[in-house]
Amino acid sequence: MKIVSRNEELLRDALSCIPQPSSRTSLASCNKLIRFEDISAAAFKIQCGVQKTPCMYSRLSKQYGMDIYLKKEFLQYTGSVKERGVLYLLMSLPQEQQRKGVIVASDSNFSMAVAYHASELRIPVFVIVPTSTAPARVKMCREYGAMVISYGATAKDSQLHARRLAQENGYLYLEEEDSAVYLSGLGTVGLEMYEQVPKLDAVIFPAGGHCGLLAGSAAALKHLNPHISVIGVESESFPVLQQSLKAGHPTDDQACNNHHFYGDVSAVCFGSNSLQLTGKLVDKVVAVREEDILISMLRLLEYERATVDAEGAIGLAALVGGKLPELKGKRVAVVICSGNLELHLLQQCIARALTLDNRVCRFSLVISDCPGDMSKLLEILAREEARVLDIRQERTFVTSELFAVKVTCTVETRDKIHTAQLRNALLERYPTAAWTER
């Protein structure tokens, strides 16, 4: 079998040929890209292979003045919504190709989903990753059942090697794109949410470059109820979807940050099918700050006991950042789509979020190096109910006065109001106290 880079040719027997959309902007013409029947077929076919994740009422509702329901896709086996599209994609492959195997070249959620579900379907699967890939990711893919090969210093090197192996051995090289089959699998999220939460007013999805979840789910939701608002959220640092919609085609000139914190949020838009569906079915696309993403991760951890990454938290970040005031008093569902964050990075994110949320603060002051002065400072902190996280003393380089000590203290408070109260109490006793701005 000839190996090609696009799945549509190999999958032409799985779905009928998808016609090109006409210039009309009606829902009917747009849904020719993927039909509602395709999404329904996908839901039936993958129901035994993926979790029907809960869409639960959140305690965050009162805090943000609306009924918030969280679709917890991070509870999938590999921690990502990508499993839906991947499983349907693999199940739709011809038997001959399933026998030969598939190959992917990245350490993304998509690759982990391919590794797991290909192994479950007894399809040989190979994952090629750069040598700089985190050991935990490599270990995870191997535990899912894939043959993992570290090759090259960059992602491009790994991709070229994977393509070469595919040509030489008859593997199908898979990359995350917007084939009708993949979008239909992802669209089952919208189908489930409509069934789980009656009378929805709006649904919020992560967007960014890989907007297949947004596009596929929008097709399902708008077919079932055109009055449901479908909203996409991306990072202000990487507004690739907004730029692509404005240009009318996928853009590839956006400088993307390769930091693992962003993951697929910062990826380049990968296909015209998703872009066309998004342009015609999605009501609004908003961009959020990194600070709001971090605070959303903190809110989900505290209120929902959900450990998620930037892609998983970015939908809620639109509410945290006040980007959607028109949803006040409405019934809103938010997709929490991914929970794959490296442990060391999770620790950094939570620490930074606590600072941004005015719950960890630092101040410095100079006191006399006499018995009892440090006790007086600690008494003030105890009276104000501030929890001391760290306290350091510096004597050698204090030049303000002789026999003085500079004290730098990091404390935890309840909230912004509590922080302000503590600051006033300290300034009253120590007028020269200096606060470290976040």
UniProtKB/TrEMBL annotation:
InterPro entries: ACT_dom, ACT_ThrD-II-like, Ser/Thr_Dehydratase, TrpB-like_PALP, TrpB-like_PALP_sf. Pfam families: PALP. GO terms for molecular function: L-serine ammonia-lyase activity; threonine deaminase activity. Its cofactor is pyridoxal 5'-phosphate. It comes from the Eukaryota. Keywords: Lyase, Pyridoxal phosphate. GO terms for biological process: isoleucine biosynthetic process; L-serine catabolic process; L-threonine catabolic process. Residues 362-438 form the ACT domain. This is L-serine deaminase. The gene is Srr.
